[in-house]
Design a protein that fits this description.
This protein is an alpha+beta fold. It has one domain: Alpha-Beta Complex (Creatine Amidinohydrolase), CATH 3.90.230.10. Helices cover 29% and strands 27% of the residues. Strand 11 and strand 12 form a beta hairpin. The mean pLDDT is 97.
């Protein structure tokens, strides 16, 4: 069931997004060569609770951390640990928080020092694909319009879109209906309506679209171990149009 949000509820999600933007800004300043992903996790936890919110990922289906940190061939759901960031790494951070009963959920790809030209193009393609997806996320369109726009752009750029994971509704729960795939699927016929709030999150690979889960049961990596980029923002469909709730 798709949960439509009132203007008052969307306003509460905006409050959560404001906090999440502050968390991302703090992490962005801390990303550097030699920094461990566990330190970034601790920093995020500290800032989230300082703002009066809760880390939505911590304990979710037994996930052991407050943020996801996926490096290079890591796509999503990487568990922070003792690994130190190296120059040229492509780091993806995904964060969810809960504030006053409403969730915010975002992800971004970060460069550690100077990355290769190919990695930079991959990151920029993911960000542009997100922008394109947001542009067609309009009342009256269908979910498949978002999916088609993202897939077409990414594949024309020479990259692939992950098919095993996708965007989703959010707000009262961390994950709600509908799913927002980054590729055309038979499940994309849902019409976009006023009151919908959902996350659009292109996950794109430099090589093939196939992925696999590591032995930790969480970390998703590209099957061919090619680089992957990920970016995510929340949008709300309002009476005035499509609003990007993410403040990064």
């Amino acid at each position: 069931m798709i949960i439509l949000k009132s203007e008052a509820e969307i306003a509460k999600i905006r409050e959560s997004e404001l906090i999440l933007a502050k968390v991302f800004e703090k992490l962005k300043r801390a990303i550097s060569e030699g920094t461990t992903t566990s330190y970034l996790n601790e920093l995020a936890y500290s800032e989230i609770v300082k703002q009066g919110a809760l880390p939505a990922f911590l304990g979710y289906r037994n996930f052991p951390a407050s943020i996801c940190t996926s490096i290079n061939e890591g796509v999503i759901h990487g568990i922070p640990g003792s690994r130190k960031l190296k120059k040229g790494d492509l780091l993806k951070i995904d964060i969810g928080i809960l504030y006053k009963g409403y969730y915010a959920d975002e992800a971004e790809s970060f460069e550690v020092g100077k990355v290769t030209a190919e990695a930079k193009t991959l990151i920029n393609t993911a960000r542009k694909a997100l922008e394109i997806g947001i542009k067609v996320a309009k009342k009256g369109n269908k979910v498949r319009d978002i999916s088609s726009a993202i897939q077409e752009f990414v594949e024309k750029a020479g990259f692939s879109v992950v098919r095993d994971y996708c965007g989703h509704g959010s707000g009262k729960e961390l994950h709600e209906e509908p799913e927002i795939p980054n590729f055309i699927s038979n499940d994309g016929k849902i019409k976009i309506k006023e009151g919908m709030v959902f996350c659009i999150e292109p996950m794109i690979n430099m090589g093939g679209f196939e992925v696999e889960v590591l032995i930790d049961g969480w970390t998703v990596v590209t099957k061919d171990r090619s680089l992957s980029a990920h970016t995510e923002k929340m949008v709300a469909i309002t009476g005035k149009g499509t609003e990007v709730l993410s403040l990064r």
